[in-house]
Design goal:
Elements: H1 41-52, H2 56-70, E1 77-80, E2 90-93, E3 98-99, H3 108-111, H4 114-124, H5 135-138, H6 146-161, E4 176-177, H7 179-192, E5 197-198, E6 218-219, E7 221-225, H8 230-242, H9 244-247, E8 249-254, E9 257-260, E10 269-270, H10 277-280, E11 285-290
Parallel strand pairs: 4-6
Antiparallel strand pairs: 1-2, 2-3, 5-7, 7-11, 8-9, 8-11, 9-10
Helix pairs in contact: 1-2, 1-4, 1-6, 2-6
C-alpha cells in the first residue's frame, strides 16, 4: 500500500459479520485454495473483511485489493524507498500492505494479523469508500483479482446460507475432527495466524466425556493455544462466542470464564467449581466445543 503523494491520484470507489473474524478458504472451489499455515487466501480475506464491516461492492473491492497487494498473505512485507513524508523509507505490511510510515497507529502485530488488519483497513478506507492510498487500486491492478474475489465472496455467502458448514471440512477417524470443529480450526488459523491447535484425543488427557474424545471417529472440540498471550486468547474467545450460531459452538472456556450456548440466556461467567478443569486449565488456550450436527 505504498502511498503515492506525487501527481495527486484521487480515486474513490463504492464499498462492501460472518464470523466476527472468519475463514481461510473454501475446500474444493477452483481458484481458492484451502488456507495453509500463515496464509489468508481469497476466502480468508473475504471472511475477515466481512467481519470488519465491509459490505456490497466494498467487500469485493477489499478482497481484490488485498489479493493484488499481497496475494492474500498475512506475512507479506515490502520495503519502500524514501517518499514524501517518509524520508527514511517505509514498509508495507500484511495482507492489505498497511504502510508503517503513513499509518504508524497500526502496530506490526495488527498489520500482520488478518482480522486486525481488516479492521484497520476498514477504518483507513473510510468504511470501504476511499481506496486512494492503495497503489493497486489507483493503478487499477486490483481489477485483475475481481474474479477470484467474486468466487471467494460467493463461497462465503454459500457457507452462511443455511447455517451449515461448507463442504470439504472434517477429518477422518478413528481420531479426526468433526466438520464444525475442523472448519473453526481453519478459521482460527486464517484470522489469527494460530497453528498450534489441539483437536482429537484418544480418551486420555481430558476429563470424562470430553468433546476432545471421538464419537464415531471424530471429536467435537479444539484447543487454541495462545501461551501467555491473554489478549490474543480473549480475541479468539470473543470471536468464537460472537459467532456461536454460525459456528455451531456449544461452549467456550478461557481464563476461568465460560459461556455455554445451551443455556437459555448464554453469558460469560466465572467457572463455578474452582477445583474444576474449567477453572484451572484454560489459561494458555481457548477451549471451544461444538454441537454434534
Amino acid at each position: 500500500m505504498t502511498r503515492v503523494v506525487a501527481a495527486a491520484v484521487v480515486l474513490m470507489l463504492l464499498p462492501a459479520v460472518l464470523l466476527a473474524a472468519a475463514i481461510g478458504a473454501a475446500a474444493g472451489d477452483e481458484g481458492i485454495g484451502l488456507v495453509g499455515e500463515g496464509e489468508g487466501g481469497a476466502f480468508g480475506l473475504a471472511a475477515a473483511a466481512q467481519q470488519a464491516g465491509f459490505r456490497g461492492l466494498a467487500l469485493w473491492t477489499a478482497v481484490a485489493v488485498g489479493l493484488a497487494e499481497s496475494g492474500g498473505n498475512p506475512a507479506a512485507t515490502r520495503p519502500n524507498p524514501p517518499t514524501p513524508g517518509c524520508p527514511g523509507g517505509s514498509v508495507d505490511r500484511g495482507p492489505w500492505q498497511l504502510n508503517d510510515c503513513y499509518h504508524p497507529e497500526v502496530p506490526d502485530r495488527c498489520a500482520y494479523q488478518l482480522a486486525c488488519a481488516a479492521a484497520a483497513t476498514y477504518r483507513i478506507s473510510a468504511d470501504g469508500t476511499d481506496w486512494t492510498t492503495w497503489t493497486s487500486f489507483t493503478t487499477g491492478a486490483y481489477q485483475a483479482e475481481l474474479d477470484t474475489a467474486d468466487k471467494a465472496v460467493a463461497a462465503l455467502a454459500a457457507s452462511r446460507a443455511d447455517g451449515g458448514i461448507p463442504p470439504g471440512f472434517g477429518t477422518p477417524g478413528p481420531c479426526g475432527l468433526a466438520p464444525a470443529a475442523d472448519y473453526a480450526k481453519h478459521l482460527v488459523t486464517a484470522l489469527f495466524g494460530i497453528t498450534d491447535i489441539g483437536g482429537c484425543a484418544l480418551f486420555a488427557g481430558h476429563i470424562a466425556d470430553s468433546d476432545h474424545y471421538p464419537v464415531n471417529g471424530q471429536a467435537h472440540a479444539i484447543d487454541v493455544m495462545v501461551g501467555s498471550d491473554t489478549a490474543l486468547g480473549a480475541q479468539v474467545a470473543t470471536w468464537a462466542a460472537a459467532n456461536a450460531e454460525a459456528l455451531h459452538v456449544k461452549y467456550v472456556i478461557f481464563a476461568g470464564q465460560i459461556v455455554d450456548f445451551r443455556d437459555p440466556a448464554p453469558a460469560w461467567h466465572a467457572c463455578r467449581d474452582p477445583s474444576s478443569s474449567c477453572s484451572r486449565e484454560h489459561f494458555d488456550h481457548v477451549h471451544i466445543s461444538f454441537l454434534a450436527i
